[in-house]
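Could you please review the protein record set out just below?
***
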Amino acid sequence: MAEAHQAVGFQFTVRPDGVDLRLSQEVIKNIYLSGVTAWKKRAIQFKNGVLAGVYPASPSSWLIVVIAMMSSLYIRIDPSLGMIDAIKDNLPRRDCMSVQTRAVLSAILFATGLWLFLIYLLRYTLKALLSYHGWIFESHGKMSTSTKVWLYLDSVRPLLDSDQYDQMEILANDFKDSKAAQLQRYLMLKSWWATNYVSDWWEEYIYLRGRSPIMVNSNFYIMDLLYVTPTHRQAARAGNVVHAMLKYRRKLERGEHAPLRALGTVPMCSSQMERMFNTTRIPGIETDIVQHLTDRKHLVVYHKGRFFQVWLYTGGRHLLPSELETQFQRILNDTSEPQPGELKLAALTAGNRVPWARARIKYFGQGVNRVSLDAIESAAFFLTLDDEPQGYDPAKTDSLDSYAKSLLHGNCYDRWFDKSFTLISYPNGKMGINAEHSWADAPIVGHMWEYVLATDCFQLGYTEEGHCKGDVNKGLPHPTRLQWQIQKECQGVIETSYRSAKQIADDVDFHAYLFSDFGKGLIKKCRTSPDAFIQLALQLAQFRDQGVFCLTYESSMTRMFRDGRTETVRSCTSEAVAFVRAMEDTSATNTQRLGLFRKAADTHQNMYRLAMTGSGIDRHLFCLYIVLSEPWKLSTSQTPQQQLNLVDITKFPKYVGAGGGFGPVADDGYGVSYIIVGENLITFHISCKFSSADTDSCRFSQNIQKAMLDIQGLFKAENDKKMVELGTHVQLENGKKHI
């Protein structure tokens, strides 16, 4: 085979007069270039380490301080107040130095110490300034445990009757008066030595210790561009997107991504980005672990039940998009059959965690199975070349539903759900991502995806025929099939995991739709937060759908703190309940409803700001080991758009994404992800379970749409009323002038 010959770095022949050794010049050249690339990377990392180590100063500022100190000595001024002389008198081996040398060395040492002191002073000053959150809202004091317990009680008050609330109040006060103080001291102790007192426990106890399947229950998805497909060639689109991801990873490794800023002001922590690539969740009997490696140079591709290893570098550089297209097309053209047990192997990552952990130890601990599994788990990421086209089709009302379910769970065996993310490529050129949740939250993956789509469409581009730009290099070694020896017993475990996962996937009732009646632009004209507007519409829709109120979860980011992740905003407030009841009360006037809406929206906004600035209650109570018995029947999240502003959507309105979504949290509840796209579009991704007789994703979407329009109608009625009053006033004024 041609690729086998190309893989040979040297040949030798044994002769009577000795050994004839022949080296491949091409291989030697590639080895040399790879070494040069590796040393360049180390040099860049060292440079970034130095720059980060002296931030907010710079290495050149040290020279300025030294020159200033030397100049002051030259004009016989001692700004050190005698410290330079003290250093000069205590220098080791000072007898071997001249007086001038000792003076210069002492001045340099003092200047260096002064420079380091100023760096730390600036750092702590900057930290103190960035810790101020009054720019978000009026300054609020630190909350005591008693206050947070009271807020917890206030959040559950709308959900309980009088007897239930009285019992909950007794339990809460008993906790506050008994265990809370001691647990709070332990938590304070942890906060002194941990960078973040929540995040490590959150990752372990909420994600890694869960033994149920992560497919649907934990993993989330992100869709491609909504209206645009840059090329309909599957291999070409995958080539451009993978190359753009490699460019993003290189910028990430070099520390070249600018930090995101909350409302454009305060930089947010970027630590979650560190594990975006080269990361896999490893199953365990009691708990999983997140394995993060460095400098991975290959990815693994799944196609029609076969696993292929594709190298991402040649000659010390990334493969070009055209070269990646060639490699992916070779996989698409491969007609070989899957090995026994290979077709549904990835179903192990979709089923329960304990059987997967045991199978990994028993059947994948040695031999070719271990080598192949290591190739998957150590890959930069995982790519699936799917067989069935997906994407948004205006002519098909369920096209987004099918697309969402494909990204969320696929066939239950064609995504490696343990990888940090699986990139999914469809035969019509559409793409998407399924992401594992423990290592990061959706905005982190969304940040990368925005960069990739912008780079794909506006930098890399395609030829007129839809191929990747650049010369075709057919001399690359072919992708390598991973080899497996899967025993019958192991095949039985795989089949059991598959059946378990398929039962979950078949139970997912999903509906995604585009709300285009109005968007952020009109909501802002009503002087209302778009997020508060949508959350109150969801409360109204939930009540109309179920006839009762429920505990509602909305995710808020806390990345203004080091290693921060999320906090809960409890959207079902007493004010929201009052507004919803007024909307359903035929005797209430529009003025009364609008007043209650504004009050509920203000309350929601204040709660969101409290959560962002570290004054939420749920993560604190979680760390105090309070286990809440109420399920989150309505779990909501807003996926941010335009984090990077690489594409001007006013000029290119078609280049917008549809966002992403997740599965339902409660068996009888809804999961709702919404994305505010530009000024005039909001997309909703709604999930629930077919097995629940009380839920229906299409019905709930209709309730959301009606609730949005009903709330907008309140503002329209108020505006019409003002216009009528203004017209009457003008008529009266004109009448007076006429008289």
